[in-house]
Structures are given as C-alpha cells and as structure tokens.
C-alpha cells in the first residue's frame, strides 16, 4: 500500500486491511479464489467484502478531509 494511503489503511479493521492488501498492495494482486482461500472465506463473499471495505476507506477519507478543512 502506498505511503499516502497508510493513514486511511491503518484506520480500517484487520479484515479490510488484509483483503485490500491482497487486492491492491502487491505487485501481482491475487485473484478472488486465492484471496478467499488465504482468508478462509467464500470466493463469493470477496467482492461484497471488497465493496464494504472500500466504502469504509472512503468514509475515513471523507471524515479526515472534513476535519482538515472544516474545523
């Protein structure tokens, strides 16, 4: 994960950090099947979990943006 994303990444729960790292934090990202196997979850739940984690990351980013510019 890039340095600029670390504050947002570190604000997420461990499930989201692990999932997003496997999707975006590697030179060669893993596929859903491999991620599901590593995390012990169903391959069908990787996509919805990814969406929830990205929504959480966006929420953290938005709250930090508001705190920075509107406090």
Mean pLDDT: 86
Task: Sketch the major β-sheet.
Answer: none
The residue fraction in helices comes out at over 70%
Number of helices: 4
Structural class by sheet pairing and helices: mainly alpha
The percentage of residues in β strands lies in under 5%
Spans of at least 5 consecutive residues whose pLDDT stays below 50 are none
Could you give the distance between the termini?
28 Å
User: Radius of gyration over alpha carbons?
Assistant: 13 Å
- What sort of overall outline do the alpha carbons produce when their principal axes are compared? elongated
- For the secondary structure, the number of strands is 0
Task: Give a quick precis of the structure.
By secondary structure, the protein is mostly helical. The protein has helices at 6-10, 14-24, 32-39, 43-69.
Strand and helix map with partners:
Layout: H1 6-10, H2 14-24, H3 32-39, H4 43-69
Helix pairs in contact: 2-4, 3-4
């Amino acid at each position: 994960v890039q340095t600029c994303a670390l504050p947002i990444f570190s604000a997420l729960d461990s499930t989201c950090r692990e999932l997003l790292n496997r999707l975006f934090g590697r030179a060669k990202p893993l596929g859903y099947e491999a991620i599901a196997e590593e995390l012990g979850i169903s391959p069908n739940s990787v996509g919805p979990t990814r969406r929830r984690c990205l929504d959480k990351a966006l929420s953290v980013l938005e709250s930090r943006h508001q705190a920075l510019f509107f406090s």
